[in-house]
Design goal:
Blueprint lengths: L13 E3 L5 H9 L5 E3 L6 H7 L5 E4 L7 H5 L6 E4 L9 H6 L3 E4 L4
Parallel strand pairs: 1-2, 1-3, 3-4, 4-5
C-alpha cells in the first residue's frame, strides 16, 4: 500500500544541474518522483531565474550560484542539494529566510 503524502509526488518538480551523478535521478525515480529535469551544464543566474519558479528541489554542483534573487524567484523551493564539497555557492542566509533546506552530498 502506498503511503499518502500531503503533496502528491507527481506534482513535485526536481531540477538537477551540472551533470549530477545518475544515481541521484535513479533514487528519485525509485521513490516515484516523475517530475525530474536534468541539465548537463551549469546555469547563469539569469537562466536559473527563468527556470526555478515551479521547482521544489534543486540539485547543483559547484558552478551554479544560488543567489538570494534565485531563492526569491522560487517560492516553492523546499531543498537545495549541493552534490559537491561545500555549500559556498548557495546564499545560506536567503535560504534560511525562505525556509529552504540546503545541504551537501559528495558524489560517489
Amino acid at each position: 500500500m502506498k503511503r499518502k503524502l500531503s503533496f502528491p509526488k507527481e506534482k513535485i518538480k526536481i531540477l538537477l544541474l551540472e551533470g549530477i551523478h545518475p544515481a541521484a535521478e535513479e533514487s528519485f525515480r525509485a521513490a516515484d518522483y516523475p517530475g525530474i529535469e536534468k541539465i548537463r551544464g551549469a546555469l547563469s543566474e539569469e537562466e536559473l531565474l527563468r527556470r526555478v519558479a515551479g521547482v521544489h528541489i534543486l540539485g547543483i554542483r559547484s558552478k551554479t550560484a544560488v543567489t538570494s534573487r534565485v531563492i526569491q524567484a522560487a517560492p516553492h523551493l523546499l531543498a537545495i542539494g549541493c552534490f559537491c564539497i561545500g555549500t559556498d555557492q548557495v546564499d545560506i542566509e536567503a535560504a534560511t529566510r525562505s525556509a529552504t533546506s540546503a545541504s551537501r552530498s559528495p558524489t560517489p
